[in-house]
Amino acid sequence: MGNATVVRVVVALASSGLCGIRITPAFAQLDCPAWRDHTPPPGDRSFHAVAYDGRRGVTVAFGGYDGTFNGDTWEWDGSTWTLRANIGPSPRYGHAMAYDDARAVTVMFGGLDESGFLGDTWEWDGLTWTMRSASGPRPRYVHAMAYDMGRAVTVLFGGTNGSTQWGDTWEWDGTTWTLRSRTGPSPRYGHAMAYESSRGVSVLFGGHDGGALKGDTWQWNGSTWNLLNNSGPSPRYLHSMAFDRERAETVLFGGTGGTASNGETWALESGVTYDRTWALRSRTGPLQRFAHALAYDSARGVMVAFGGSNNNFTLGETWEWEGSAATWELRSSPQPSPRVAHAMVYDDVRGVMVLFGGSGADAVRLGDTWEWSGTNWTLRTTEGPSPRYGHAMSFDSARGVIVLFGGLGAAGRMRDTWEWNGTAWTLRSDAGPSKRYGHTMVYDGARAVTVLFGGYAGLGSSRETWEWDDGEATWTLRSTTGPALRGGHAMAYDSRERATLLYGGVNARLSGTRWEWDGTTWTALRTAGPSPREEHAMGYDIARNVTVLYGGVNDLLNPAYLGDTWEWNGKGWTLTSVSGPSPRADAAMAYDSDRGVMVLFGGAGPFGQRFTTGPWEYQCQ
Prior knowledge:
By secondary structure, the protein is mainly beta. It is elongated. Mean pLDDT is 90; it is low at 1-30. It folds into 2 domains: 5-37 and 339-408 and 434-455 and 481-618, 6 Propeller (Neuraminidase); 94-307, Neuraminidase.
């Protein structure tokens, strides 16, 4: 199609009527450099495994699932994650690990990879993975393991192969697996185990038997399983446990009851051997989750929790539990929580990307302000504008401030105007455009004004064009003609053409028309290119003089989420990529003029999934 032509009809709406017809090249596909994922390491994942290496003083993490099978090995030293290996066991998830203190190796068994269920045994010595056995327990995943220090064996119980739940107990002595028992806890998967060195027993809690959740607590003394009690944490599975040697208690965190994830922290307290009780220690800390991993760092006396899933999204933070204070502390990979309908712009005076608000987990409105330096996220403040989503922001380069307007808050639509100077938010106005959300804003550098268009206001959409004069702190209504009533559109300011560009959006139907605002008049530019869509993102690449468009949805009744990347060069659209961030809508995107990259964060996919990976960066050289 590269040599074909299409007709672009330019309509001057200020005076109405057809102004003229111009012939421009049709869109083509360009092989352009891809998107790059800048998610802080090790990245979001679930169904991975961790174990604490007491000899080297590090927590070892392997594998997991983030939409693909992972086969990477990481180590956490209490402050930093370090990638140690990308070779060894096949990429997998649902495996189990335990640290063999006598032989100074981390033992891993089973899991699920692209070929199916696994029954292999591997050991990590801090430098290299070695496959030790392909026999022993039947292939399985979501089983549990713990290392019995008193008898120098790794204990394995349960798991599933997708159709059969296992109730067998095995022990690994470093050379051979031995079947020790087929009695005790009922067959199950998704349970958790921890070895209590003060008592010389392995404790097991919960799981799923294929028909129902379990809430029972058992202990293994090396020859027999004994039921401790049936009370304590609610029945759950895919939780995690580890033993706190300093306080001589087993700590349990998270899990799921099947329909909702859990964020509780429990401790199995000291007591008579078969008459011990669980105590709820905390309901605050990490976001509710399951399929995460937990290990006890004996050198620092803290529990280390990493990753997991929250039904709608995977997680990648590292948290630590300090048992004496009964508090969780976020230790690694601080970044904005998963969200949609947030706003993000680039502050080219301070050289940082600024993000505010949005709709988070369970549709909670957010009011946090973050900055992305190109390598790290920093939470700047949780004060300022009230929590909201569907607002819009622009960067006033003349005055060095970010302007925010409107959105949807707890009390409904809003019409307040705020400015961020890099240190604090200031309320500038409660007048101007009517209350609305789903509008867009850009800064017109040639005329030194912020341009606002559209949104959902009152009983319907708006087609108003407003301009904010930061110096006068006033809004001026500039037009009520041009693009039809709409929300969910995207805009970018083309500094070469000195025009504001608008694409897409929705009222009664999706739009696929591109518009330009020159400060006086809107002009419709009809040409082949991206499909009609809403909730996409756009930004202007100053270095290459192109407008970049990404994602969105293209069906109102049965939303089809898009992951395509397009560029507009002033003459035609070019499809540059269909790979990169997973298809999504309601993400935020802005151009970093210092590094010459387009930055994208957040958004939602099918079934309300909110994405945590990123930011993603796009650069075409």
